[in-house]
């Protein structure tokens, strides 16, 4: 048994099943020969966050996602948790942080929704959940006090995915045009990792990009139109944003200009002075076959 050092000021310790007084420091040791971790615990009285083991020991979340969830839950209300802010705070980079946020959203630790403010600006509202899918304490006490038997917990089903907005269609969907459109869409993520699209999204958006390319726009111009002035917040549905831009900002078709017809000069018919055959020429004379060959036309053999 460890002995307490009386010369050191005692620290507050965390309670373990109500057996340890909060004024004492505890040191939990593993069984003999196990070689496991040793916990040297002291109770926090200020600046602490309660984290459930369902998060700290989650079997499906990555270590980055768990750490990011702990960081977000420790922040005060109103703190910015967009990808750009988190990437400036941590060294993992925008791509890995965006993937971790999607993990937390999939498992219910984050809820993100786009809202339009009174001045017309679109912002992303982020809600951090420390116990996903669980109701408040008041609601639990009320339900437990009722004599009705509990129903088996129903598995939470994800809501059906909303359909993407319609996009323009090209007049002539040539294979080469659609291939160029797909290359434009796949290349968007190189400039902004938030524009990582699924195969279904690319298949839906490709005709819209082809309609832009059909208007004699280079791929670089289409890329710029889809990526310029994006909101700083996380993009909850990037494919929907791109579909809206393709439909709302499509340029007009170039004006058709008919080719200028050349004036064809038709000379009058004349009779050849040598063979009397008819031919067209500006002046009377001989036809082409009866004209004398210029000197040197056929070199002597």
Walkthrough of the structure:
It is a single chain. The protein is built from ten helices and six strands. The protein has 301 residues and is of the alpha+beta class. Among the domains are: 84 residues, Arc Repressor Mutant, subunit A (Orthogonal Bundle); 74 residues, no CATH class. It has a two-stranded antiparallel sheet. Strand 3 and strand 4 form a beta hairpin. The longest helix has 15 residues.
Task: Pick out its properties.
301 residues; alpha+beta; Arc Repressor Mutant, subunit A; two-stranded antiparallel ribbon
Write the CATH architecture name of the domain at 53-136: Orthogonal Bundle
Query: What percent of residues are in strands?
Result: 5-15%
Q: What is the gyration radius calculated from CA atoms?
A: 38 Å
Can you tell me the CATH topology of the domain at 53-136? Arc Repressor Mutant, subunit A
**Main pleated-sheet profile:** 2 strands, antiparallel
Number of helical elements: 10
User: What is the CATH class of the domain at 53-136?
Assistant: Mainly Alpha
The 3D shape can be described as rod-shaped
Helix content: 25-40%
Structural class: alpha+beta
For the secondary structure, the number of strands is 6
Low-confidence stretches: 1-21, 135-146
Mean pLDDT: 78
Concise structural overview:
Helices cover 32% and strands 9% of the residues. With 301 residues, it is α+β, with helices and mostly antiparallel strands. Helix 6 (175-186) crosses helix 8, helix 6 (175-186) packs across helix 9 and helix 8 packs parallel to helix 10.
């Amino acid at each position: 048994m460890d002995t307490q050092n009386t010369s050191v000021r005692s620290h507050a310790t965390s309670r373990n099943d109500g057996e340890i007084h909060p004024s004492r420091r505890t040191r939990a040791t593993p069984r003999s020969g196990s070689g496991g971790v040793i916990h040297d615990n002291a109770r926090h009285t200020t600046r602490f966050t309660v984290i459930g083991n369902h998060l700290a020991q989650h079997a499906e979340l990555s270590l980055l996602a768990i750490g990011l969830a702990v960081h977000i839950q420790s922040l005060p209300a109103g703190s910015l948790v967009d990808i750009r802010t988190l990437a400036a705070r941590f060294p993992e980079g925008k791509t890995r942080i965006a993937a971790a946020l999607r993990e937390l959203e999939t498992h219910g630790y984050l809820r993100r929704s786009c809202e339009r403010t009174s001045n017309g600006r679109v912002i992303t509202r982020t809600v951090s959940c420390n116990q996903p899918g669980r109701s408040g304490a008041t609601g639990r006490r009320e339900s437990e006090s009722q004599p009705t038997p509990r129903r088996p917990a129903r598995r939470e089903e994800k809501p059906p995915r909303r359909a993407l907005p319609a996009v323009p269609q090209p007049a002539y969907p040539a294979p080469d045009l659609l291939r160029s459109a797909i290359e434009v869409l796949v290349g968007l993520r190189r400039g902004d990792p938030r524009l990582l699209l699924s195969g279904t999204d690319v298949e839906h958006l490709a005709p819209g990009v082809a309609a832009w390319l059909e208007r004699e726009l280079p791929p670089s111009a289409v890329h710029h139109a889809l990526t310029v002035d994006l909101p700083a917040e996380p993009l909850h549905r990037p494919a929907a944003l791109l579909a809206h831009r393709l439909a709302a900002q499509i340029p007009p078709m170039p004006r058709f200009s008919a080719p200028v017809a050349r004036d064809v000069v038709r000379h009058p018919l004349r009779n050849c002075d040598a063979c009397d055959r008819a031919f067209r020429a500006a002046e009377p004379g001989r036809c082409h076959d009866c004209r004398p060959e210029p000197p040197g036309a056929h070199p002597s053999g």
